[in-house]
Design brief:
Number of helices: 11
Number of strands: 9
Bound molecules: N-carbamoyl-L-aspartate
Strand order of the largest sheet: 7-6-5-8-9
Strand content: 5-15%
Order of helices and strands: HEHEHEHEHEHEEHEHHEHH
Largest sheet: 5 strands, parallel
Shape: globular
Mean pLDDT: 92
Helix content: 25-40%
Radius of gyration: 19 Å
Structural class: alpha/beta
Length: about 300
């Protein structure tokens, strides 16, 4: 088992052994983190730059913690403090970062494809921390780790991804990963928020929550991403909740042991009822955050060793 690439830009195109390698390594980091002995010297002397052109709390903190736990020097650059505000282009930023000899570059950007463009211009290994509506690979990996630890497998499970599919990079990365590992993926949402190409990704498309949730093992809710909508296709939050919001009534259609997930940040009362989100018997939302640190440690560890040098 191996991961042989220099960067982690997307899940699409990864093979099951590459995903399996990262998940197995992440699993060992979960145990290490829980043992309290996580401070290691693996990345001592290496520089990790968190380059965030979009707001983020959990993803940025998670990468920061992961880097620090492995001993890296971590620098956070956010758009409000960087010279991007002074009109510097993405490529000038890349040249500047290159001159700083950073080893690992974590990028979040509002435009799909920005991390790939940077990856072509910098020497560092680039990790996509979410680009536009394209992909968010570490989120899909942490979701898969959460599912695998709880259910013992991914293959054969029925996963319903619900809500604003159209604007969700989390949905795209998850669809690719779950389908690659053999899960049955369903997507459900209002017709305006489910892109027509969803059926081409090997998913089953629904426009009714109860039908989509019937017999599901995993119910993955998505945030309604208003900031990515040019005009509001959703009439009101109350109406959205009525049809697409997850409450116990709709959840009853899923398997009795179905797990509820959400990548955060949650719009409580819009896509998910607080009572469901906070129910420890059903919701694994906090566990997803814990898995996020372990997955990012596994990714930083793997990429820092360089392509072809990470066979186990
Ligand atoms: C997601 C993102 O930024 O794409 N959040 C995250 O990384 N935790 C999902 C979202 O913003 O809704």
């Amino acid at each position: 088992m191996f991961y042989s690439q220099k960067h982690l830009l997307q899940i699409e195109g990864l093979h099951p052994p590459e995903i399996g390698y990262l998940l197995d390594l992440a699993e060992s980091y979960v145990l290490l983190n829980r043992s309290g002995k996580a401070q290691r010297d693996l990345l001592r002397g290496r520089t990790l730059i968190n380059l965030f052109f979009e707001d983020s709390t959990r993803t940025r903190t998670s990468f920061e913690l992961a880097g620090k736990r492995l001993g890296a020097d971590v620098i956070n650059m956010s758009v409000s403090t960087s010279s991007v505000n002074k009109g510097e282009t993405l490529l000038d930023t890349a040249a500047t970062l290159n001159a700083m000899h950073c080893d690992l570059l974590v990028v979040r950007h509002g435009q799909s494809g920005a991390p790939r463009l940077l990856a072509e211009k910098v020497d560092a290994s680039v990790i996509n921390a979410g680009d536009g509506t394209h992909e968010h690979p570490t989120q899909a990996l942490l979701d898969a780790l959460t599912i695998k630890r709880r259910k013992g497998r991914i293959a054969g499970l029925t996963v319903a991804i619900c809500g604003d599919i159209a604007h969700s990079r989390v949905a795209r990365s998850n669809i690719h990963l779950l389908a690659t590992l053999g899960a049955h993926v369903r997507v459900v949402g209002p017709p305006t928020l489910v892109p027509p190409e969803a059926a081409l990704w090997g998913t089953e498309v629904f426009h009714d929550m109860v039908h989509a949730l019937e017999g599901a093992d995993i119910v993955m809710m998505l945030r309604l991403q208003r900031e990515r909508m040019s005009r509001g296709p959703v009439p009101s939050e109350r109406e959205y909740f009525r049809f697409w919001g997850l409450d116990f009534k709709k959840l009853a259609a899923a398997k009795p042991d179905a797990l509820v997930m959400h990548p955060g940040p949650m719009n409580r009362g819009v896509e998910i009822d607080s009572a469901v989100a906070d129910d420890p018997r059903r919701s694994v939302i906090r566990e997803q955050v814990e898995m996020g640190v372990a997955v990012r440690m596994a990714v930083l560890d793997t990429l820092s060793r360089g392509p072809g040098r990470n066979a186990i």
